[in-house]
Amino acid sequence: MKKIIIILSIIICCSCKDDKKKLQKDIKPADTSNVKTETIEGDFSGGTLLRIDDFPSNYIPPRKVDIWLPANYSKDKEYAVLYMHDGQMLFDSRITWNQQEWKVDEISTRLMNDSITRDFIVVAPFNINEIRHSEYFPQKPFESLSESIKDSLSDEAKQNNFKLDIATSDNYLKFIVKELKPYIDKNYSVLTDQENTFVAGSSMGGLISMYAICEYPKIFGGAACLSTHWPGGNPNESDLLANAFFEYMEENIPSSKNHRIYFDYGTETLDKFYPKYANRVNTILKDKGYNASNFKNLKFEGADHSELAWQERLYIPLTFLLPKTNE
Q1: Residue 161 confidence class, pLDDT cut points 50, 70, 90
Q2: pTM of the predicted model over 0.85
Q3: Were both Cys, which of 62, 152, 308, 327 would link to 54 (CB 3.0–4.6 Å)?
Q4: Which residues are CB-contacts of 178 (< 8 A; sequence separation ≥ 6)?
């Protein structure tokens, strides 16, 4: 009798998981035909900063999305697209929590004006602080963890005033790929192919950028992962989470033939915990056929974990991912 109960329990559990997966597959992208944009006042290096207040989604909670168009934006040209996480931190220090910004518009404008990079626009969904960690935490590595480890992560997250009961990054990426990108492709003069579509972020945004190019290698041709937060949670002596990310990468890093991947790290504040992972990252990428032409993992001595630090070196990954091509 006990054996029958155990077997039934396993069947029911598997059935529930199958139903959950089916429900997720059945979710249709949100209707974006009524999306409205407003132009943000300010000096954005001669370009235009547009903001969507509540971009609709059936995968994640609606949120603000910024779209930066360079000064030379014209419907007579087509532009590459860079998707960047933590959108509220990129362009305007008036709205950031620490009065710092990446200065994405200034740096991008300079690179384009000097013919160092191809022309591109930037699309930047905002984060929602309470669920940022769960949306940016790579989901498949998270689901490979034991239940006790997941519970421990959840408790740790609560102590730091954010939520990580589950990882929701698969749905976050579906939002970008199935809702946001089709809207951009339809409404802006952009190149829609993999060769001209990129993703970038820092810290947890570095992790989700790595995860994005692994999960959608036909969508993204390159990823920039600055100060990638390999510890996953609060840094400690255990490398359990980092090892879960690395094991995932060993199986899922996309082909070196048509992708570019950039990592970097500093040595101060939170970044001081990252240098020890550099050799493992290098080994994984080199074993997958990457070399200096399509892979970087750079150390910035003295750099800390802040928008000012990323601002100082942003030109390097942008130049690496989006070099000017002969037209």
Answers
A1: low
A2: yes
A3: 62
A4: 29, 59
